[in-house]
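User: Hi! I'm working on a homework problem where we have to compare a predicted structure to a textbook description. Could you give me the structure for the chain below?
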Amino acid sequence: MKQNEITFISNINLIDENSLRNIPYPQANCVQTLYNFMHYLNQNHILTEELAKDLNIDKRQVAYYGNALRYLGFTYKDKEYHQLTKKGKQFVQSSKSDQKKAFIKSCMSIPSINSVYMLYKNEKHLTSYKVGLEINKYRNDLSLSTYIRRSSTILSWADYIDKNIHRCI
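Assistant: Happy to help. Predicted structure tokens:
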């Protein structure tokens, strides 16, 4: 890892992940779909059916992507609808490079995701099992097998971060 990446990451404040226990752990692999989801919310596309159609995902995945955005602090759930937070509104009004930076900062502020990214950078072959164990250190409220299944999301995000972090510095 380059020194400027280390500096960038070390300047991000970690949140208390226990404060997120009421939100399902992320299972939304496609970062672009997360971005699109926020842009659709900004255009008042709030019905699950509309989001599913516009994002080309099924209704169940709308919940997964919405919850992932809640976990990252970009949305909240108002009764049955997802709404943009102030952070989410700032995201959709930002340039593409600032959106990448905001996404990376949000991910890296979450201890389990930050820790998995560091493993990702330091190990040649990172298994789902090892990622699941790492997530379980921070979120042990679900079974290890659940976190192993969710590991594909965090690995996908780690890959995205790795490919884009140099654009944020």
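For your comparison, note the following. The mean pLDDT is 93. The CA atoms of residues 5 and 160 lie 14 Å apart. Good luck with the assignment!
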